[in-house]
Write a structure and sequence with these properties.
275 residues, Rossmann fold, 6-stranded parallel β-sheet, 10 helices
């Protein structure tokens, strides 16, 4: 059971910076701080002055910051160093402040690499990545660095899809067409709760039926139409909730030096989605 911790002058502050802040990260991190008896507190913020906000992190000794859209690229010129996880995709979702030195990471990338390995997805699988936004970039880089060679980026927007594919050495296509890849990764907003495509599939059902693994990046809801169809067909599923929990767990470890147990992470993730 969680116990409240008194905030003092020694309490470490961690924050998030987002265009549209939510309570998910706040609830996740604060749940674990209380669970583990850590003298930390987490608060979500938004800002219209990113350089001043990053300067505040440095000047006030804020231990860490989660970075969401639209700031993931803009912070690159404001930090002191970049971890390989952020360099791999030229995108930042985590900043760690160590005695005034701001180092940038991308735990989305780290989460995708970890999940591909832990679920035992064969590196010789054929694949498609659906989408060309920031999360698609993390997925494509993770695939490349994990040794996947036989796949493509599928995006209707040639202006973003083609450069993304070419940057990482994969072909781009506007649609899946007649291909039936082993691994289907949805990095689009299709299926996201509250969005215009909440009830839709990002690909034709036949593509899902033929797949060995479906990797859903959308985290809310956990059971998207894509996940439900894949489960119904007996296809191995990696969910967006797993991505969200694992990337947040990596952030938590970077901030605190503590790695929660799988049970603690599961309970924190459940708590974070309930609010």
């Amino acid at each position: 059971m969680m116990q409240s911790t008194q905030i003092t002058k020694d309490t470490q502050l961690c924050i998030s910076l987002a265009g549209r802040p939510s309570n998910v990260g706040t609830r996740f991190h604060n749940f674990l701080y209380a669970e583990l008896g850590l003298d930390y507190v987490y608060k979500a913020f938004t800002t219209d002055d990113l350089p001043a906000a990053i300067g505040g992190i440095r000047a006030l000794g804020i231990r860490g910051a989660g970075v969401s859209m639209p700031h993931k690229q803009d912070v690159i010129g404001l930090v002191d160093s970049m971890d390989d996880s952020a360099l791999a995709i030229a995108s930042v979702n985590t900043i760690v402040n160590t005695d005034g030195h701001l180092r940038a990471f991308n735990t989305d990338y780290l989460a995708v690499v970890s999940l591909l390995a832990s679920h035992g997805v064969p590196v010789d699988s054929t694949f498609v990545v659906l989408g060309s936004g920031g999360m698609a970039r993390a997925v494509v880089a993770a695939l490349r660095d994990s040794g996947f060679t036989d796949g493509s980026v599928v995006a209707r927007n040639a202006g973003s899809g083609q450069p993304l594919a070419e940057e990482y050495g994969y072909p781009w296509r506007p649609s899946v067409g007649s291909d039936r890849p082993d691994l289907v990764i949805n990095a689009t907003p299709v299926g996201m709760a509250g969005g215009p495509g909440a009830a839709d599939l990002p690909v034709e059902p036949e593509v899902v039926h033929a797949a060995s693994t479906v990797f859903e990046v959308v985290a809310m809801p956990v059971e998207t139409p894509l996940v439900r169809l894949a489960r119904d067909r007996g296809v191995r599923v990696i969910t967006g909730a797993e991505v969200q929990a694992l990337q947040a767990a990596e952030q938590f470890a970077l901030y605190t030096g503590v790695r929660p147990t799988p049970d603690q992470l599961e309970r924190a993730a459940t708590f974070s989605r309930a609010g």
